[in-house]
Amino acid sequence: MSTEIRMINPPELHPAPGFSHITIAPVGEIAYIAGQTALAPDFSVIGPGDLAEQTRASMKNVETALRSIGASWDDVVRRTVYTSCPTDFAIITAAIEEIQGSTRHPAQTILGVTGLAIEGLLVEIEVTVHLPVSR
C-alpha cells in the first residue's frame, strides 16, 4: 500500500487544468476545512470586486487553517470552489497556485453560485485534508 497521496489524470478524460481528476490518499485521519472567504479578522471584505485578490485571501485563510492542524498544501486531497465567476477559472487557478506555491492540484470542483454569505464576496474555498497516521 502506498504511503503517499497520489493524483491521477486518466488520459481518456479531458485535460485537467488546475485540478486532478482523482486523488488517492493512504490510511490516516481526514480533516474537513470549512469554506474560507476573503474576510479579514475584522469581518471586512478583502479585495472588493477583485476575483484574484479574493481568491488569494481565501487561500491564505485556508493556509491558516491548515497550519493550525499541522498540515500543508501537500495534505489537501479535495478542494471545492464556490464562486459567482465560475468561467474565470484561469484567474482562480493562477491565484491558488500563487498562494500554495505549486501547480500540484487535488481533485476539485468549481461551482457557480448566485451569491455567498456576505455581500461582495466572489469566492469561497473549502478543502478536505489527509492527515497521515504517523503525525
Descriptive report:
It is built from 2 helices and 6 strands. With 135 residues, the chain is α+β, with helices and mostly antiparallel strands. The protein has a 4-stranded mixed sheet. A two-stranded antiparallel ribbon has the order 1-2. Helix 2 links the parallel strand 4 (76-83) and strand 5. The radius of gyration is 15 Å and the shape is globular. The two termini are 18 Å apart.
Offer a few descriptive terms.
135 residues; alpha+beta; four-stranded mixed β-sheet; two-stranded antiparallel sheet; 2 helices; 6 strands
Set down the secondary structure blueprint.
Blueprint: E1 6-8, E2 22-24, E3 28-36, H1 51-68, E4 76-83, H2 89-100, E5 107-112, E6 123-132
Parallel strand pairs: 4-5
Antiparallel strand pairs: 1-2, 3-6, 4-6
Going by helix content, strand content and strand pairing, the class is alpha+beta
Fraction in beta strands: 25-35%
Q: What is the residue-averaged pLDDT?
A: 92
Distance between the termini: 18 Å
Q: List the strand order in the largest sheet.
A: 3-6-4-5
Q: What is the radius of gyration computed over CA atoms, rounded to a whole number of angstroms?
A: 15 Å
Main sheet makeup: 4 strands, mixed
Spatial shape: globular
The beta-strand count equals 6
Instruction: Provide the helix percentage.
Output: 10-25%
Outline the low-pLDDT stretches: none
Give, in order, the helices and strands: EEEHEHEE
